[in-house]
Structures are given as structure tokens and as C-alpha cells.
Amino acid sequence: MVRAFAPWCAVFGLLWTSIPGWPQQPAAPPASAPSAGANASLLSRAVALYDSHNFSGAFAVFRLAADSGSVEAMMYLGVMYAAGQGTVRNYRQAIAWFGRAADAGDSQAMCNIGNLYYQGAGVSKNFDEARKWFRRGAVAGNAQAMFNLGVLYRDGAGVPADYEEALKWFRQAAEGGSAAAMNSIGVMYQNGQGVHADYEEAMRWFLKAANAGSGTAMYNLGVAYKEGRGVSVNPEEAAKWFAKASTAGEDHDFAKIP
């Protein structure tokens, strides 16, 4: 894989606006595609252009690579259409390119389509359709899709709230390395959602999530040490975790303990 950036399949963190009009679907790949070596060369060139912020040039080369069958290039095109990088922002085209990548088996594309339906970007907001795509990505092994599916069940978005089902998907996502899922499991143990309340178990998950980079989990550890939840009250330790949380990057998980 050549992907140089995270293709942003997170339920939270992106605010989009709809694009008017009904653009045509992208053209199908040409009948005679270049060799795998030529395609890899195109993709490497496009990634280099993207990384140098030459988005117009990158967009043109990604299109050539995508038309010759590169699933990676299709993903980049979907992201660039959604972000308006090197082209006019167009969510319907983003969905079309993510759809082609999903048809080729890319689980991240499946998750991204679910996110677009969840947000109502380029399509009518549809939690049922979002859940379908998240589940498809989750079954294909995508940890972000597993986390997003857990969020839908935890929050009752398009389905009755089901904490046990949410925990099931959060646990699978955590096994796949999702720090957001680890933090969410900790919050559910704190609140007794789907499990008996267990502050010590919550702390274990918060620490695991924090070590995996979750700024929200760092904040939650600060609260736990400040208020003595599962640990002895420790103002110095609380201050340490609050400071770490303030400098941590965005982790798209806003599940904080009350």
C-alpha cells in the first residue's frame, strides 16, 4: 500500500456541506490497462505530487492510475473530491469513487461511504445505509468501521440503543488497534453501560487507549485521578494527564466520562 494519509473514516471530526447538481459517474477504466509496473509508477508519482501539495497535478495522475485499475488511486480521488483538493468539492463523485474501491474490496472505502451517509454529505442522511456500509467494512476487518458500528448501537442512531452490541463491536475494534474503541469501552465500564460498573476496569481501558494515542482517554484519566474513580485521588497525576490531553492530536472520539 502506498497510502500517504489516513483516509478519514471516522464518525466524528468532519463537517461537510452538500454540493448542488448531479455530476456524471466517473468513466470506467480503459479496456487495455497499463502494466502493473506502469500503474505503480503512476501511483508513486501521484503520491509524491500529493505530498508536495500539488493537488491539481496529483489529481490528474491519480485519475490516470484509477482509470488503469488502481484501487489506491480510487481512494485518493474519493478523498480529494470530498475535500476539494485539486478539484471542485463534489461528494457525489467522492461516493462514486469510494464505491468503485469498495467494489474492489477496499474496506476503508466501505467505511467512508458509511460515513458520508451518516453525515448526509452528497446524499440524504440515512443511518440504515450508514450501518449497512459500516457493517460491510467491519466484516471485511476494518477497525474504524467496527468502531463506527459500535457508536451507532451505543447512541441508538437508526437502531434501538444496544449497549451489548456496541461493546461487541468496540471490543473487536480495540483488538484491531482502535484507540477510540478502547476509550469507549472504558467509558462504558465507568457508566455501567452493557456491563456492571467497574472503575478499575475502566482505568485499564483508559490507560490502554491513552498509550495508543487517544487524547480523550488522557482527559478521562485526568478526571479519574482528580475524583478518585478506580484510583486514589492524586492531583499531580490528574494534572499530568490533563496536560497530555491538551497537547494530544484529534482522535475523533468525544466519549468523556461525566
Q: How many strands, which pairing sense, and closed or not: the largest β-sheet?
A: none
Q: Which structural class should the secondary elements be placed in?
A: mainly alpha
Count the beta strands.
0
CATH superfamily of the domain at 1-142: Tetratricopeptide repeat domain
Name of the CATH architecture of the domain at 1-142 = Alpha Horseshoe
Number of helices: 12
CATH topology of the domain at 1-142: Serine Threonine Protein Phosphatase 5, Tetratricopeptide repeat
In terms of per-residue confidence, which ranges show pLDDT below 50 for 5 or more consecutive residues?
Answer: 1-7, 11-35
Succession of helices and strands = HHHHHHHHHHHH
Briefly, what CATH class of the domain at 1-142? Mainly Alpha
Choose one word for the global shape: globular
Report how far the terminal alpha carbons are from each other.
40 Å
Mean pLDDT: 86
Rg, rounded, reads 20 Å
Beta-strand percentage range: under 5%
Residues in helices, as a percent range: 55-70%
Provide key terms for this protein.
258 residues, Serine Threonine Protein Phosphatase 5, Tetratricopeptide repeat, disordered N terminus
Describe the structure.
With 258 residues, the chain is mostly helical. It has a domain at 1-142: Serine Threonine Protein Phosphatase 5, Tetratricopeptide repeat, CATH 1.25.40.10. The chain is 62% helix and 0% strand. It contains twelve helices and no strands. The chain has helices at 36-51, 55-67, 71-83, 91-103, 107-119, 127-139, 143-155, 163-175, 179-191, 199-211, 215-227, 235-247. Helix 9 runs antiparallel to helix 10. It is globular.
